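Aim 2 progress update. The chain analyzed this quarter is reproduced below.
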Amino acid sequence: MKQFFVFLAIIFLSLSLNAQVEKVIVETYYISDANDATDTTGGYLPAGSTTYRIFIDLKAGSKLLSIYGDAKNPLKFESDSVFFNNKSNGQTFAKDIKASWYSKNTVALDSWLTLGQVSTRALAPAKTYFGVLKSNDNNGSLVGGSKNNGGSAHITAGLISNASTLAGIPVTTADGIDTLSNAPTAWFDNGFTSYDSINDLTLDSTIFGSLVPLKTFESHNCILRNSGTVGVFPDKNEVLVAQLTTKGTLSFQLNIEVEEPIDGSSSSRIVKYLSTDNGALAENEKVNPYLRYPLECGCKDPNYMEFSESFGCNDISKCKTPIVLGCMDPMACNYDSKVNKNIPSMCCYPGYCNDRDLAIVCPSLSNEPLIYLFPNPSNNFMTLSIKAVKDQDVEYSFIDANGAIVLHKYLGNISSDYYENIDITSFQNGIYKLKISVGNSIELKTFIKQ
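Predicted structure tokens:
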């Protein structure tokens, strides 16, 4: 049964291939209200707009190096309504936001990208603000309500104070901002902004800039990278990569680079995780279904034929065909037509039953002459098994699809069970007949060389 257990091990191994990226969390950060819609300083924000935050949940010890789009794997964010960008102090990258700006109008709801960091580096103390889930934020808030300047309409209670339960914890209680001492370095970006040398300005006309309101960003040539980011809480290791505000329905495709520790050593490796299978994965590339949103649901139960690890969520209704393990070789004495997952080591033949009791596995076997040829199909060697016959000559021939004899052998009288390992490596791939003559009786068996 060794091969059977190897088969099960392969299933469980496949389930752990994406273990470094444990999941992607889409947090509903805030839902704007009528007060927020009064501000014109930061630009019009429709009431009912939702601010989402996207976190990559990595296994402890891993670092997020980049988010990117390349020729085969686009980086894509999309909504059926335009994304909001604050036109006064909004930034393409959250690392360029000054902490003091979070108290101004609707800057805290700006759409941006990041690798964890959500403000410029503080001078004293030497800590930098990083994004965390509101549910993990226990250090209060510097966003909204009494902390906000009220925007252009000078709302007395301050903007960004909506306490709708649809957004979970109010941002006035927990703003999803915490500090980290070891900020990443070596920031690099490409494909999001352009430089206007005449006016000495950095321009951004993507969904992350306020120049042109857009519903979609899709690029095959962009990257945001740094020296490596870990989550504020190392055991959770949840790294914020984007904040997006829109009144529409959000969807996205992400590709990320992760530096992972190699088990049992002090070394690490860089692995690229992709949202979709482009059909030509490199050695260091893996597909992770959680990087595509909304998640595609399907059968994630490995006990069903419809199982696939490519699904991001489980839909039990898609699991329709239970896996039946067993022998699918019609030449085996325990062939079972109900089996849909073949385990060759479970097949039994006269004289061979993988160290199991043949009489128990195949009680229907009689003492009359029986001939077996296995495995079938085969690409190199096949075993011919013939039960003992008395006072009858035995010979066999292998005949190809054109009727030509490609191998013939005379065995003579067989007084005991006969076994022969036959080399078929020189045979052309295709369908063959084995013709066996036992005295005046002839038996034909079909097999496939592949």
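The radius of gyration is 33 Å. Helices lie at 2-15, 358-361. These observations will guide the mutagenesis experiments scheduled for the next reporting period.
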